[in-house]
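Field guide to reading this record: the first block holds the primary sequence, the second block holds the structure written as discrete tokens, and the final block holds curator observations. Each block starts with its own label. This record concerns Flagellar protein FlbT, catalogued under organism Bradyrhizobium macuxiense.

BLOCK 1 — SEQUENCE
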Amino acid sequence: MALKVELKPNERIIVGSCVITNTDQRARLLIDGDRIPILREKDILTPETADTPAKLIYLAVQLMYLSPDPMAHHPTYFSLVRDIITAMPSAWPFIESVNNFILNGDLYHALKESKKLIAHEEKLLESARGQQKTNQDDTRKSA
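BLOCK 2 — STRUCTURE
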């Protein structure tokens, strides 16, 4: 069964090892193939935009997903996993799920699960920022 993809004007998509850039009008593509990696521009992370531990994990999984040899990226991924679990133990359920998808060769779902890890990290960072602001406000009031 073919995958239907609607592209916005000038939107890019990765299909296999090719980057396809749409023209200035909307386009609809039908992509037929078995186990071809496909990533929309909104789902692509670059080394420059992978600026948190969870985003680095996503980037490593993305590289596995797009690579003809996913195992080449395993050392980087598992090193990042050790670091994030040490710093953020609450990430374990997300990491466990990503690991299971990777071990089963389902890198697309590992990538989707990595997005949940990013959302979890963002929630924790937002909470920490709110706590820091509260502490600063309390310090100002007592001064």
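BLOCK 3 — OBSERVATIONS
The mean pLDDT is 92.
The first strand starts at residue 3 and ends at 7.
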